[in-house]
Amino acid sequence: MTFADAPIAADSFGKLNAGGLRLGLVDTSDRDAFAAWIQADSRGFHEGRVAEKQIDEQLQDVAYRRTTGVWDDSMTDAATPVATVSSWPTPLTLPGETSVSAWAISSVTVAPTHQRRGIARALLEAELRTAHSLGIPLAILTVSEATIYSRFGFAPTTMTADLEIDTRRASWTGPAASGRVQFISLEQLQSVGRGVAERARRGVPGEIELDDYLWGRLIGLLGDAKDEAKNLRAVIYHDAAGAPQGFALYRLASHATDFAAHTATVEHLCTVTDDAYAGLWRYLLELPLVTTVSAPLRSVDEPLIWQVTDSRAVRTTHRRDHLWARILDVTAALEARRYSAPGRIALDVTDRLGFAHGRVLIAVDATGTAQVSPLDGLEHNGEAPADAASLALTVNDLGALYLGGVSARTLVRAGRITELRPGSADAVDATFHSPATPWLSSWF
Ligand SMILES: CC(C)(COP(=O)(O)OP(=O)(O)OC[C@H]1O[C@@H](n2cnc3c(N)ncnc32)[C@H](O)[C@@H]1OP(=O)(O)O)[C@@H](O)C(=O)NCCC(=O)NCCS
């Protein structure tokens, strides 16, 4: 048995079955069955019918994922599922450049004809049960709406910013890069850039490993972005020793009346070193005939703001949640990351679905490594040790704090977390703080 064919959670199956619906796995080696699921997924996101060529791509690169559907056998088109979800385990980078296996959930759709009768709930609960039964300590997703997933124990754990830069006001004041920028074809980038992306993601909490499909889609060679790929330009940055250390993908749009006022949209900019970061951003800001550089889905803590003459020329046009996390195994999740300060923290975690419910003691040593033990055990007699910080919180808020990008003090002020001992939030913030700001630079 692999993750892809682990049994369907009986609870969810029973609930949907009682409503005349059939929850099951798609045999992704069966082209017709998988194609019907792909069409349902696309329809669920209000996208067009998927072309045969794109179905071929998904047969090759997405078929390995766990692919679940819900069918209503009473429908005229009974072969097309009325709901979809897909999932797979992926390494998620954590503070301290460690990583954990996370259960990535994608393609959550319910047909408008079948919405609001508990199908998404049954699907999500089944996903969480499956991940838990496979020993995967947390689930992650990126969301269409911020209102759906809290009820399942998820919370935003990385934030993102869309930037718009007026390049007439933003002259470069950052360091001079030592290497050089050169154009590269998307096909060349496909192989050369992959290693760069993989090295970069290991340094940033919140980044995941991109599978072949996500990588191909990111660089415009696969999926629905493909038609627009002809407008994509790719540049790669080599350091002084000739090693690739970053790349950028951008597209240019002309101004209605002024040819000297193009907008460059940075679809993706990925760097391993600060030198590459400086080299690529300077290149983008100094593009001729360009007055606006737009950069969606950036980190909320870009050094760029400190590298231009006028920091107000770099405007954040939109700031929002991006990666959502749901902890399923508190001990495994918390022991996987590194911490910024030693100390002991008692957590009283509430989880309506039960997975993470209970009281634990986190003991962080001088190397930033944690040991987590149940507080209800005999050793602690149910009491938090006198020197421990102590918080009561929901599994959502533990997920929010997990990568160190959200402050416990803020969540206490928001009335979401309760300090069981005064000063506990600050102690947690000192310990959970991540030196690298958490960020996920793509969608999945
Ligand atoms: C969002 C979507 C998956 C919900 O499916 P559904 O089967 O109608 O949802 P359910 O009936 O199982 O509802 C489960 C809960 O979520 C709530 N809910 C459902 N859709 C919601 C929405 N869009 N916003 C806020 N809450 C929502 C329901 O009220 C219900 O709450 P409760 O159980 O706490 O009372 C479906 O409307 C859809 O496919 N939308 C378009 C695609 C999309 O956005 N998918 C999400 C991708 S991240």
The helix-and-strand class reads alpha+beta
- Principal-axes shape call: globular
> Unreliable stretches, pLDDT < 50, 5 or more residues?
none
- The share of residues in helices is 25-40%
Q: Which ligands occur here? A: coenzyme A
Q: Termini, distance in Å?
A: 25 Å
- How many DSSP H or I helices? 11
Largest sheet: 7 strands, mixed
Order of strands in the sheet with the most strands? 1-2-3-4-5-14-6
CATH T-level fold name of the largest domain: Aminopeptidase
- What share of residues are in beta strands? 25-35%
Order of helices and strands: HEHHEEEHEEEEHHEEEHEEEHEEEEHHEH
CATH hierarchy class name of the largest domain: Alpha Beta
Over the alpha carbons, how many angstroms does the gyration radius reach? 23 Å
* Overall pLDDT metric: 96
Would you kindly provide a brief summary of this structure?
By secondary structure, the chain is of the alpha+beta class. 25% of the residues lie in helices and 30% in strands.
SSE diagram, text form:
Layout: H1 10-18, E1 22-25, H2 31-44, H3 52-61, E2 66-71, E3 83-94, E4 98-110, H4 119-133, E5 138-142, E6 155-156, E7 159-166, E8 180-183, H5 186-201, H6 212-218, E9 232-238, E10 244-253, E11 262-271, H7 274-285, E12 290-298, E13 314-321, E14 323-327, H8 330-336, E15 343-350, E16 358-364, E17 370-374, E18 389-394, H9 395-401, H10 408-413, E19 418-419, H11 424-432
Keywords: Acyltransferase, Transferase
Subunit structure: Homohexamer; trimer of dimers.
Binding site for acetyl-CoA: 108-110, 116-121, 144-145
